[in-house]
User: Fold this.
Amino acid sequence: MHDLPLNDMTMIDMTTHLPAPGRWRPVLPATSLTPSAGVVLGFLQGEELALWRAPDGSAQAWENRCPHRGLRFTLGTVVDGRVACGYHGWSFRAGDGRCMAIPAHPQMTVPRSICARTFHAVEAEGMVWVSRAPVAGAPPATGVRTWVRTLGIRASPASVAQTLAGAGWRAAAPDVLAGGEIGGDAAVLLLTQAADGLVLLHAGLVDAPDPACLPQIHAALRRLRGELEAQADLAITGTEGAKQ
Ligand code: FES
Assistant:
Protein backbone atom coordinates (compact mmCIF):
# COMPACT_ATOMS: atom_id res chain seq x y z
CA MET A 1 0.00 0.00 0.00
CA HIS A 2 1.24 3.49 -0.81
CA ASP A 3 0.87 6.28 1.69
CA LEU A 4 -1.17 9.33 0.86
CA PRO A 5 -0.86 12.73 2.42
CA LEU A 6 -3.53 12.64 5.11
CA ASN A 7 -5.04 15.89 3.94
CA ASP A 8 -5.75 14.36 0.53
CA MET A 9 -7.97 11.82 2.18
CA THR A 10 -9.66 13.93 4.80
CA MET A 11 -10.15 17.12 2.89
CA ILE A 12 -10.96 15.83 -0.57
CA ASP A 13 -12.31 12.32 -0.37
CA MET A 14 -13.96 12.06 3.00
CA THR A 15 -15.59 15.36 3.83
CA THR A 16 -17.42 16.07 0.62
CA HIS A 17 -21.07 15.27 0.04
CA LEU A 18 -20.69 15.67 -3.69
CA PRO A 19 -20.75 12.47 -5.71
CA ALA A 20 -17.26 11.28 -6.55
CA PRO A 21 -17.95 8.76 -9.31
CA GLY A 22 -15.50 6.14 -10.35
CA ARG A 23 -13.89 5.24 -7.05
CA TRP A 24 -14.34 2.16 -4.88
CA ARG A 25 -15.50 2.91 -1.38
CA PRO A 26 -15.66 0.34 1.42
CA VAL A 27 -19.20 -0.49 2.50
CA LEU A 28 -19.31 -3.58 4.71
CA PRO A 29 -17.59 -6.92 5.36
CA ALA A 30 -18.59 -9.49 2.77
CA THR A 31 -19.57 -11.98 5.47
CA SER A 32 -22.60 -9.77 6.17
CA LEU A 33 -24.12 -10.82 2.86
CA THR A 34 -25.43 -14.32 3.48
CA PRO A 35 -28.45 -15.98 1.86
CA SER A 36 -30.28 -15.83 5.19
CA ALA A 37 -29.45 -12.15 5.74
CA GLY A 38 -31.72 -11.08 2.88
CA VAL A 39 -31.38 -7.40 1.99
CA VAL A 40 -28.85 -5.62 4.18
CA LEU A 41 -28.49 -1.90 4.87
CA GLY A 42 -25.26 -0.17 3.86
CA PHE A 43 -24.07 3.33 3.10
CA LEU A 44 -22.22 5.13 0.32
CA GLN A 45 -21.21 8.69 1.20
CA GLY A 46 -24.25 9.15 3.39
CA GLU A 47 -26.67 7.51 0.94
CA GLU A 48 -28.52 4.36 1.98
CA LEU A 49 -27.79 1.21 0.03
CA ALA A 50 -29.68 -2.06 -0.21
CA LEU A 51 -27.10 -4.85 -0.40
CA TRP A 52 -27.71 -8.50 -1.14
CA ARG A 53 -26.09 -11.55 -2.63
CA ALA A 54 -27.35 -12.80 -6.01
CA PRO A 55 -27.75 -16.51 -6.79
CA ASP A 56 -24.45 -16.45 -8.71
CA GLY A 57 -22.72 -15.25 -5.54
CA SER A 58 -22.10 -11.68 -6.67
CA ALA A 59 -22.67 -8.77 -4.30
CA GLN A 60 -25.45 -6.40 -5.38
CA ALA A 61 -25.65 -2.76 -4.28
CA TRP A 62 -28.78 -0.75 -5.05
CA GLU A 63 -30.30 2.51 -4.00
CA ASN A 64 -32.41 1.62 -0.97
CA ARG A 65 -35.62 2.75 -2.63
CA CYS A 66 -38.18 0.86 -4.66
CA PRO A 67 -38.96 2.71 -7.93
CA HIS A 68 -42.71 2.10 -7.43
CA ARG A 69 -43.64 3.96 -4.25
CA GLY A 70 -40.24 4.39 -2.66
CA LEU A 71 -40.32 1.77 0.09
CA ARG A 72 -36.86 0.79 1.33
CA PHE A 73 -35.67 -2.41 -0.32
CA THR A 74 -34.20 -3.40 3.05
CA LEU A 75 -37.81 -3.98 4.18
CA GLY A 76 -38.18 -6.54 1.42
CA THR A 77 -36.93 -10.07 1.00
CA VAL A 78 -34.90 -12.16 -1.42
CA VAL A 79 -37.21 -14.66 -3.12
CA ASP A 80 -36.13 -16.99 -5.91
CA GLY A 81 -32.98 -14.99 -6.50
CA ARG A 82 -34.75 -11.64 -6.79
CA VAL A 83 -35.51 -8.82 -4.37
CA ALA A 84 -39.23 -8.68 -3.62
CA CYS A 85 -40.34 -5.28 -2.36
CA GLY A 86 -42.09 -5.40 1.01
CA TYR A 87 -45.00 -3.17 -0.06
CA HIS A 88 -46.64 -4.42 -3.28
CA GLY A 89 -44.26 -7.29 -3.96
CA TRP A 90 -42.75 -6.13 -7.23
CA SER A 91 -39.64 -8.23 -7.78
CA PHE A 92 -36.33 -7.10 -9.22
CA ARG A 93 -33.52 -9.18 -10.67
CA ALA A 94 -29.79 -8.99 -9.96
CA GLY A 95 -27.43 -7.18 -12.30
CA ASP A 96 -29.46 -4.48 -14.01
CA GLY A 97 -32.14 -4.32 -11.29
CA ARG A 98 -34.95 -4.76 -13.80
CA CYS A 99 -38.46 -5.38 -12.46
CA MET A 100 -39.54 -8.84 -13.60
CA ALA A 101 -42.94 -9.31 -11.95
CA ILE A 102 -45.82 -7.28 -10.56
CA PRO A 103 -48.07 -9.56 -8.47
CA ALA A 104 -51.20 -7.42 -8.95
CA HIS A 105 -50.84 -7.80 -12.73
CA PRO A 106 -49.46 -11.29 -13.30
CA GLN A 107 -50.23 -11.29 -17.04
CA MET A 108 -48.63 -7.94 -17.70
CA THR A 109 -45.33 -7.61 -19.53
CA VAL A 110 -43.38 -5.36 -17.23
CA PRO A 111 -41.89 -2.35 -19.04
CA ARG A 112 -38.11 -2.60 -19.30
CA SER A 113 -37.82 0.91 -17.94
CA ILE A 114 -38.90 -0.15 -14.43
CA CYS A 115 -35.63 -0.79 -12.65
CA ALA A 116 -33.97 -0.43 -9.30
CA ARG A 117 -31.11 2.07 -9.34
CA THR A 118 -27.99 -0.05 -9.25
CA PHE A 119 -24.39 0.66 -8.30
CA HIS A 120 -21.16 -1.15 -9.07
CA ALA A 121 -20.09 -3.60 -6.36
CA VAL A 122 -17.07 -5.83 -5.94
CA GLU A 123 -15.57 -7.94 -3.17
CA ALA A 124 -11.89 -7.74 -2.30
CA GLU A 125 -10.09 -9.14 0.73
CA GLY A 126 -13.38 -9.84 2.45
CA MET A 127 -14.81 -6.35 2.04
CA VAL A 128 -17.62 -5.16 -0.24
CA TRP A 129 -16.66 -2.03 -2.17
CA VAL A 130 -19.16 0.08 -4.10
CA SER A 131 -18.88 2.79 -6.72
CA ARG A 132 -21.51 4.90 -8.46
CA ALA A 133 -19.66 4.67 -11.77
CA PRO A 134 -17.43 2.06 -13.41
CA VAL A 135 -13.92 1.84 -12.01
CA ALA A 136 -11.03 0.61 -14.11
CA GLY A 137 -8.99 -0.96 -11.32
CA ALA A 138 -9.51 -3.04 -8.22
CA PRO A 139 -10.11 -1.58 -4.75
CA PRO A 140 -6.95 -0.67 -2.84
CA ALA A 141 -5.15 -3.57 -1.20
CA THR A 142 -5.57 -3.55 2.56
CA GLY A 143 -3.59 -6.61 3.62
CA VAL A 144 -6.42 -7.52 6.00
CA ARG A 145 -6.88 -11.17 6.81
CA THR A 146 -9.72 -10.93 9.32
CA TRP A 147 -12.41 -8.29 9.70
CA VAL A 148 -13.22 -8.25 13.38
CA ARG A 149 -15.86 -5.57 13.87
CA THR A 150 -17.62 -2.54 12.41
CA LEU A 151 -18.07 0.33 14.84
CA GLY A 152 -20.45 3.27 14.52
CA ILE A 153 -18.63 6.47 15.49
CA ARG A 154 -20.53 9.68 16.23
CA ALA A 155 -18.09 11.99 14.49
CA SER A 156 -17.31 13.40 11.08
CA PRO A 157 -14.93 11.53 8.75
CA ALA A 158 -12.47 14.41 8.97
CA SER A 159 -12.48 14.32 12.77
CA VAL A 160 -11.99 10.54 12.84
CA ALA A 161 -9.14 10.68 10.31
CA GLN A 162 -7.47 13.55 12.13
CA THR A 163 -7.62 11.85 15.52
CA LEU A 164 -6.30 8.60 14.10
CA ALA A 165 -3.47 10.43 12.35
CA GLY A 166 -2.54 11.95 15.69
CA ALA A 167 -2.40 8.43 17.10
CA GLY A 168 0.05 7.31 14.42
CA TRP A 169 -2.30 5.83 11.80
CA ARG A 170 -1.42 6.71 8.21
CA ALA A 171 -3.59 7.11 5.13
CA ALA A 172 -2.58 4.16 2.96
CA ALA A 173 -5.30 4.90 0.37
CA PRO A 174 -8.54 6.87 0.32
CA ASP A 175 -10.71 5.65 3.22
CA VAL A 176 -7.94 3.25 4.33
CA LEU A 177 -5.89 3.82 7.49
CA ALA A 178 -2.98 1.53 8.32
CA GLY A 179 0.08 1.31 10.51
CA GLY A 180 -1.70 1.10 13.85
CA GLU A 181 -2.48 -1.62 16.34
CA ILE A 182 -5.66 -2.84 17.96
CA GLY A 183 -5.16 -4.79 21.16
CA GLY A 184 -1.51 -5.29 20.23
CA ASP A 185 -2.27 -6.70 16.75
CA ALA A 186 -1.35 -4.92 13.49
CA ALA A 187 -4.60 -3.52 12.11
CA VAL A 188 -6.20 -1.63 9.24
CA LEU A 189 -9.23 0.64 9.52
CA LEU A 190 -11.63 1.43 6.68
CA LEU A 191 -13.96 4.40 6.90
CA THR A 192 -17.50 4.65 5.55
CA GLN A 193 -19.50 7.85 5.85
CA ALA A 194 -22.95 6.67 6.95
CA ALA A 195 -24.56 10.07 7.57
CA ASP A 196 -23.70 13.55 8.74
CA GLY A 197 -21.74 13.02 11.94
CA LEU A 198 -21.77 9.24 11.70
CA VAL A 199 -18.87 7.14 10.45
CA LEU A 200 -18.64 3.37 10.22
CA LEU A 201 -15.18 2.14 11.12
CA HIS A 202 -14.40 -1.35 9.80
CA ALA A 203 -11.55 -2.84 11.80
CA GLY A 204 -9.45 -5.60 10.31
CA LEU A 205 -6.36 -7.45 11.44
CA VAL A 206 -3.36 -8.19 9.25
CA ASP A 207 -2.92 -11.62 10.85
CA ALA A 208 -5.52 -14.09 11.99
CA PRO A 209 -6.22 -13.31 15.65
CA ASP A 210 -5.64 -15.71 18.49
CA PRO A 211 -9.22 -16.44 19.67
CA ALA A 212 -8.02 -15.97 23.24
CA CYS A 213 -7.09 -12.38 22.37
CA LEU A 214 -10.46 -11.42 20.90
CA PRO A 215 -11.88 -9.99 24.16
CA GLN A 216 -8.94 -7.57 24.47
CA ILE A 217 -9.26 -6.64 20.77
CA HIS A 218 -12.94 -5.81 21.22
CA ALA A 219 -12.15 -3.89 24.40
CA ALA A 220 -9.49 -1.90 22.53
CA LEU A 221 -12.01 -1.08 19.79
CA ARG A 222 -14.53 0.16 22.35
CA ARG A 223 -11.86 2.39 23.86
CA LEU A 224 -10.94 3.65 20.41
CA ARG A 225 -14.57 4.53 19.73
CA GLY A 226 -14.73 6.44 23.01
CA GLU A 227 -11.58 8.38 22.16
CA LEU A 228 -12.75 9.25 18.65
CA GLU A 229 -16.13 10.48 19.89
CA ALA A 230 -14.53 12.40 22.77
CA GLN A 231 -12.18 14.18 20.36
CA ALA A 232 -15.10 15.03 18.08
CA ASP A 233 -17.09 16.42 21.05
CA LEU A 234 -14.04 18.40 22.11
CA ALA A 235 -13.69 19.91 18.65
CA ILE A 236 -17.38 20.91 18.61
CA THR A 237 -17.13 22.43 22.10
CA GLY A 238 -14.01 24.32 21.07
CA THR A 239 -15.69 25.67 17.93
CA GLU A 240 -18.75 26.80 19.86
CA GLY A 241 -16.55 28.37 22.55
CA ALA A 242 -14.59 30.31 19.94
CA LYS A 243 -17.85 31.76 18.55
CA GLN A 244 -18.95 33.13 21.92
S1 FES B 1 -43.41 0.37 -3.21
FE1 FES B 1 -42.25 -1.33 -3.92
S2 FES B 1 -43.67 -2.51 -4.99
FE2 FES B 1 -44.81 -0.80 -4.40
Notes: Residues 62 and 118 are 4 Å apart (CA to CA). Residues 1-17 have pLDDT under 50 and may be disordered.
